[in-house]
Design goal:
This protein is mostly helical. It has one domain. Helix content is about 80%, strand content about 0%. It starts with a helix and ends in an 8-residue tail after the last helix.
C-alpha cells in the first residue's frame, strides 16, 4: 500500500477541518500520521480555527445585513421622493393625503438609513469580520504546517512495524485536505461569483433601458396622455434602482472575486500538476523539497487572502455612500 491509498480518496466533506475524523478514515499503515492528528497540537489549533471561523461568519452576516438595510432604506426614501414629485402635479385632497403619508414614510426611511450607517461605522462588525477571518485562515495554515512538520514544534513520529514512512503520508494528507479542498473552493466559489456578477449586469441593463425610455417619454405627456407620465415616473425611479443595484454589487464584490478566484485556481492547478514530482521527493525522503512545496502553496493562499482583505477594505468606503435622497 502506498501513502496515497493509506490517506484515502477525496470526499465531498473533506473541507471540514476535523483531524480526528481525518485520522479515523486512514488505513492502519498511516499510523505515524494518525498519532500526530490525534495529538494535542492539532486539537488546540482546531479550537482556535473553529472559534475564529464562527465569529467571522457572525460578523460578516451582521455587517452585510446592516449594509443591505441601509441601501434598501435609502433607496426606498429616494423612490418615495420621486413619487411625491409626481403626485405634486395632482391637486386633489386625496393626492395631498397620500403625499403627506409618503413624506412621513420617507422621513422614517431616511432616519433608519442614517441609523444603519451609524451602526455600520460604530459597531466595528466589518473590522471584526476581517480580523476573525484572518485568524481562521492563519489557523488553517498553521494546522497543515504543524501536521506536515514545517514548524519547530511540530510533533515527531516514526513508522512502526508495517506502517509507512511519515513524510509521504504528510504530503498526501496536505494534497487531499488542503490543496484539493482549496482547488474545489476557488473553482466553485468563483463560478458562483461569476454567475452573480452576470445577474447584476443583466439587471443593470434592464434598469438602464427603463430609465432611458422613461426619460425619453417624459416630455410627451401632453401629446400622449397620462400613461406617459407614469412612464416618466419609472424613468425617475430607475436611476435609484440602478444606484441600489450598484451598491449591492460593490457590497458582494462578485465581479472582482470571480476574476481573482479564477487566477488563484489556475495557480493552484499548476501546483497540483507538480504533485507526482513532489511524491518522488517524499519517497526519497527529500524533506526540504516537500516542505518547500507545502510552504509555497500555503503562501499562495495567504497572498490571495491578503488581496481579498485589501479589496474588501477598498470597497467598504463606497458601499454605503450612495442612494442618498435629495428631497
Amino acid at each position: 500500500m502506498d501513502a496515497k491509498t493509506a490517506i484515502g480518496e477525496y470526499e465531498p466533506e473533506d473541507w471540514l477541518l476535523d483531524p480526528q475524523q481525518h485520522a479515523a478514515r486512514m488505513a492502519p499503515e498511516a499510523g505515524p500520521l494518525q498519532r500526530i492528528l490525534q495529538g494535542a497540537a492539532p486539537k488546540v489549533i482546531i479550537e482556535q480555527y473553529e472559534k475564529a471561523d464562527a465569529e467571522a461568519g457572525k460578523y460578516q452576516n451582521d455587517y452585510k445585513r446592516i449594509a443591505r438595510l441601509e441601501i434598501y432604506l435609502s433607496s426606498i426614501a429616494a423612490i418615495i421622493g420621486a413619487i411625491v414629485l409626481y403626485l405634486a402635479s395632482e391637486a386633489t385632497s386625496t393626492s395631498d393625503i397620500i403625499r403627506q403619508g409618503l413624506l412621513l414614510v420617507q422621513v422614517l426611511c431616511i432616519a433608519g438609513s442614517v441609523a444603519a450607517k451609524y451602526q455600520i461605522h460604530s459597531n466595528n462588525s466589518f473590522i471584526n469580520w476581517q480580523q476573525s477571518r484572518t485568524a481562521a485562515e492563519t489557523a488553517r495554515i498553521e494546522l497543515f504546517e504543524t501536521v506536515c512538520g514545517l514548524r519547530k514544534d511540530s510533533p515527531k513520529e516514526t513508522a512502526q512495524g508495517d506502517e509507512l514512512p511519515l513524510l509521504p503520508l504528510q504530503l498526501e494528507y496536505f494534497l487531499r485536505y488542503q490543496l484539493r479542498v482549496q482547488l474545489n473552493y476557488y473553482n466553485q466559489r468563483g463560478e458562483q461569483h461569476k454567475k452573480a456578477a452576470r445577474q447584476y449586469v443583466t439587471i443593470g441593463s434592464a434598469i438602464t433601458f427603463i430609465a432611458t425610455v422613461g426619460a425619453s417619454l417624459g416630455g410627451m405627456a401632453a401629446d400622449f396622455g397620462d400613461w406617459v407620465s407614469v412612464a416618466a415616473l419609472a424613468g425617475l425611479v430607475a436611476p435609484v434602482l440602478l444606484a441600489a443595484q450598484t451598491s449591492l454589487s460593490r457590497l458582494n464584490q462578485d465581479e472582482r472575486n470571480a476574476a481573482r478566484y479564477a487566477i488563484t485556481h489556475r495557480h493552484l492547478q499548476n501546483y497540483e500538476k507538480k504533485a507526482d514530482t513532489i511524491r518522488e521527493f517524499a519517497n526519497a525522503d527529500n524533506v526540504d523539497g516537500v516542505h518547500a512545496y507545502i510552504r509555497s502553496v500555503n503562501e499562495l493562499i495567504s497572498v490571495e487572502h491578503k488581496e481579498w482583505m485589501e479589496q474588501q477594505m477598498s470597497g467598504t468606503a463606497t458601499t454605503t455612500s450612495e442612494n442618498r435622497d435629495p428631497a
